[in-house]
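Lay summary. Proteins are chains of building blocks that fold into shapes, and those shapes determine what they do. In this project we predict the shape from the chain. Here is one chain we studied, written as its sequence of building blocks.
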Amino acid sequence: MDIVYGIMLDNGSGYNARCDSSLGLHIGDFCVIRKDFYLDYGQIVKQFDAPPPEATPAAPVEEERESGGTVFSAKKNEIYAILRKATVVDQGKANENKMRAKSALRITGQYVDRLGLPMKLINAHYSYDGKLITVQFSAEGRVDFRELVKLLSQEFNTHIELRQIGVRDETAILGGIANCGRPLCCCQFLKDFASINVKMAKEQDLSLTPSTISGICGRLKCCLKYEHEGYLELEKTMPRRGELCECKDGRGRVVDRNLLTQKVTIQLDDSTHTVVCPASEVSVVYLDKYKLRGAAGQGDSAKQNQNPSGGDAAKPSSEGTAPSQQQKPARQGAPDGQNRPHGQPRKQGERPPRQPGDQRPQNRPQQNPNRPPRPQRQDGGNRDGNRDGGKPHGNQPPRRPPQG
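And here is the predicted shape, written in a compact code that computers can read:
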């Protein structure tokens, strides 16, 4: 029966590997792994009860590396094979590779300074058999390191792999102490970095000061993610800031709250004092002026919008009623049976009715009121713009006077 383990290397990277249960491996043991075209050395940090669903069988694919050589690289989420449990000889060789990796990192830094590349070297890792050197670095943007790979391949006479990592991975590898006084979560148990946004900090009632919600890496703290669901559950039974509440000391508004202790701070209306009460002893108050216009106003408006001919609506009374609340008469000029009460929107396509004496054409074009009227000719000019017996306009021949 095959068992899948999580392997961690000395440079902070890791992958999954499988082996038969007859090897008797446990968490914390060191082992030799067959990976691609070389052997690697790592420590078991996790054991899976079942193979991960995203894992695929080992299927190396051929690709071209930056150095120009053709090697076999593994696919993502690939499960490799564990050959054996590390012996004393294997541990001695692994310690020797660590010393060689430090020397390789120092030489790589010299080449980086010579080429003037904007990159920060983190660490270097030698494979168990020395066929591959992996150098991890961080940079603000993309870095063209093709010339660096060629120089390092000639220097060490082996395959070189440069891997760029983010600031969170860099912090997880280097380690440190968080603001809470404990080691960083990414160094202990948090291995997968999820997406974090500022909205999570707002829902946890945290100050949005960058120094408060940012970690050592300069990004938002990872603890904002895995504590977010717990804060959402605590917030369901808590009043929000600014709400009007009643407590045993009187009525006031919520100025502060603590989700963890389930207590709220209320500033009383009749004084400037503030009191701290548990959330269970506070009730939210909604005054009439703060209520939304809902069922209370819908009943009166529905009665006013009913057709007066049906007899359901009550007649307006001038006694004891404000002028703004009286029902306004229908518009004048509309025929009987088409009176539309005031306030009711006009239906789509409905046009105002015409008066009985209005004889305007239906499709009469609209004239510009600012246009001056056309002057009438007083000299008896004809249609062509010429007077009888006058000089013709343009190239037209003159007209003969009538005979007899």
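What the prediction tells us: The chain is about 20% helix and 25% strand.
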